[in-house]
Amino acid sequence: MTPPSPAPAPGPRPRARDLGIVIGPTPTGPLDALTDVPGVRVGHTTLRPRPDVHSGVTAVVPDGVRPGAPLPAGVFTGNGYGKLMGTTQLAELGELETPVLLTSTLSAFRVADALVGWMLEQPGCEDVVSLNPVVGECNDGFLSDIRRRPVREEHVRAALDRASAGTVAEGCVGAGTGTVALGFKAGVGTSSRTPEVRGRRVTVGALVQANFGGALRVLGRTVTPCSLGLEDAGPPAETGSCMIVVATDAPLDARQLTRVARRAVFALARTGAAYSHGSGDYAVAFTTTRPGAAPPLADADLSPLFEAVLDAVEEAVLNSLLAATTTTGYAGRTVPALPSAAAAGAASSTGR
């Protein structure tokens, strides 16, 4: 049985902002990550029994979330070719009562079971007889032997237990270890924004598990493996998915958070997403501010927050690509990383 391995520290590859790729006018949080939202932690378990497995699990853990103490949440499906467990109750009640876990398609069911077991052991869950685990997935079968279903209970527990509020590892880690997006090796990416809404600063962060088809656009300029003289060796463009998790500390209700989740999926279009028949494009959005803790925002005040979500998701996708490294996996398939110089060059020529 494969032991859980800690996610590697962020590598030397630059993030989007290191290359001068600045998306939108709104400032980021100090880490430019989902964990800039107070009370949100992220953990990874990465599995690489080479050469055939490149997989893992990523946990987004809001502090104190549990049945009996849920957080307001919303969900939006851009294209429903996927397995996002917990969707119906999340949409019906507008409440998130577990962490959000991301993994590989055929491992999602084991991950959900492991999440239930972990939740039942948490303080305050001693009498729980029903809960709604939220688990999303992307198909990493191009680079990983997906039929092995490598993610096990101990890997899920390790990701949950090691989740931290610090810097989030990106690229080929956790649920992004074997994913491919827009013709390049991708993975997990994250970003944040701190828009001003009705005279107060709020924080919104996004984390993506990028695995979708299309042609990459960097600030509007198309960059493909072929345009860079690289072999286009990825999966067919009509396959793939993207899971997006958005967190904020803005006081929003479930209906408003569904509007936020909708913008998160819309943002993929900026990066060149094809939204194909075979793509599962989902967003889950939640707030860490519980009902009654602060005056709710009016719908008419939400535009700065919507813009911040669009910008954060676009940058998170770019970070997922820039942090990833060229990977050779299952059946000897190799997918190239996005060269940092190509991304920087595309950005410098746009004038945006």
Instruction: For the record, give the distance between the C-alpha atoms at the N and C termini, rounded to a whole number.
Output: 50 Å
Overall form: globular
Strand content: 25-35%
Low-confidence stretches: 5-10
Structural class: alpha+beta
User: For the residues shown, what is the average pLDDT?
Assistant: 93
Kindly state the number of beta strands: 19
For the largest sheet, list the strands in their spatial order.
Answer: 5-4-17-16-13-10
Tell me the helix content.
10-25%
Q: How can the largest sheet be summarized?
A: 6 strands, mixed
Radius of gyration from the CA trace?
A: 19 Å
Secondary-structure element pattern, one letter each: EEEEHEEHEHEEEEEEEEEHEHEEH
Distinct helical segment count:
6
Kindly summarize this structure in a few lines:
With 352 residues, this protein is α+β, with helices and mostly antiparallel strands. The protein has helices at 87-93, 108-120, 153-161, 254-266, 303-323, 340-348, and strands spanning 5-6, 40-47, 55-62, 71-80, 95-96, 100-104, 134-138, 180-181, 184-185, 188-193, 196-197, 200-201, 204-211, 217-218, 221-222, 239-248, 278-287, 327-328, 334-335.
Give an account of the 3D structure.
The chain is an alpha+beta fold. It is built from 6 helices and 19 strands. The protein has helices spanning 87-93, 108-120, 153-161, 254-266, 303-323, 340-348, and strands at residues 5-6, 40-47, 55-62, 71-80, 95-96, 100-104, 134-138, 180-181, 184-185, 188-193, 196-197, 200-201, 204-211, 217-218, 221-222, 239-248, 278-287, 327-328, 334-335. The protein has a 6-stranded mixed beta sheet with strand order 5-4-17-16-13-10. It has a 5-stranded mixed beta sheet with strand order 1-2-3-6-7, covered by helices on one side. It has a two-stranded antiparallel ribbon with strand order 8-9. The longest helix has 21 residues, at 303-323.
